[in-house]
């Protein structure tokens, strides 16, 4: 378990509050809201808590790869894996919502052989991904969310 610095603790708390507000806004506008953020498109990822069993929804920047949705477990540059990724490692079945359309997905880490090409795609959306990687001691995991049960 990584011990967070005070700065990372504050950033994590802020991201939770902003994420909740952003999710509420997107849901209230039924897909007509602010689906762009920091140069990219947002996905709402609903996942199951690994300890609580509760459902959580997290807004994330995403890329499309055919029918798949790609996300980065960057955690805003906080040096700990994001809770959503820890949850998906325990229960990989989740739901995504993009512009009001929802579907079931299964999550998997992108293999090392594909990582460089996918990382480059994230870099093209926002150079801040390199900054996130530079501030953390872990390698930021890239995650593929494949349609499931469609």
Q: Strand order, biggest sheet? A: 2-3-4-7-6-5
End-to-end separation in angstroms reads 36 Å
Spatial shape: globular
**By CATH's scheme, which homologous superfamily applies?**
Electron Transport, Fmn-binding Protein, Chain A
Please state the CA-atom Rg, rounded to the nearest Å.
15 Å
Structural class: alpha+beta
| Order of SSEs | HEEEEHEEHHE
The largest sheet, given as strand count, sense and whether it forms a barrel, is: 6 strands, antiparallel, barrel
Question: Describe it for me?
Answer:
InterPro entries: F420H2_quin_Rdtase, Split_barrel_FMN-bd. It comes from Pseudonocardia xishanensis. It catalyses: oxidized coenzyme F420-(gamma-L-Glu)(n) + a quinol + H(+) = reduced coenzyme F420-(gamma-L-Glu)(n) + a quinone. Belongs to the F420H(2)-dependent quinone reductase family. This is Nitroreductase family deazaflavin-dependent oxidoreductase. The chain is an alpha+beta fold and 150 residues long. It has one domain (6-147): Pnp Oxidase, Chain A (Roll). Helices cover 35% and strands 32% of the residues. The protein has four helices and seven strands, in the order αββββαββααβ. The protein has helices at 6-28, 83-90, 112-125, 128-135; strands spanning 36-37, 40-48, 55-65, 68-72, 93-98, 101-109, 142-147. The chain has a six-stranded antiparallel barrel with strand order 2-3-4-7-6-5. The chain is globular. The mean pLDDT is 86.
